[in-house]
Amino acid sequence: MSFKEAAPLGDVPEGAALGIEVDGVDIALVRQGDDVYAIQDWCSHAEIPLSDGDVEGCTIECFLHGSRFDLRTGEALSLPATEPVPVYATKIEGETVWVDLPTESEN
Question: Are 101 and 25 in contact (CB under 8 A)?
């Protein structure tokens, strides 16, 4: 794994998602208080950007069919999605959010 610079902390909205791309990986960043979560920005059911959906607590909803995913684990919490989506560890250094992405050999 390798931490990559993702976004300025001030760009990540509280209780909403910011869709970004880091090293070719589409990611939705979500800020909840002092925590920032990073989840793959594609619903496992319909390949719709999760960053366009609603955030509630530690979940994000796909706006198209209503599937919800746990921001901490990527687990699909409601149908029609049944497959999880990848989540990535984050860290905040100063005013920058960093995301831990798999290296080529880990894919």
Answer: yes
Is the model's pTM score more than 0.85?
A: yes
Ordered per-residue pLDDT tens for the chain, 107 residues: 699 999 999 999 999 999 999 999 999 999 998 899 999 999 999 989 999 999 999 999 999 999 999 999 999 999 999 999 999 999 999 999 999 998 765 54
Both ends of the chain: CA-CA distance in Å? 10
24, 47, 97 from 83: Cα distances, Å:
22, 12, 27
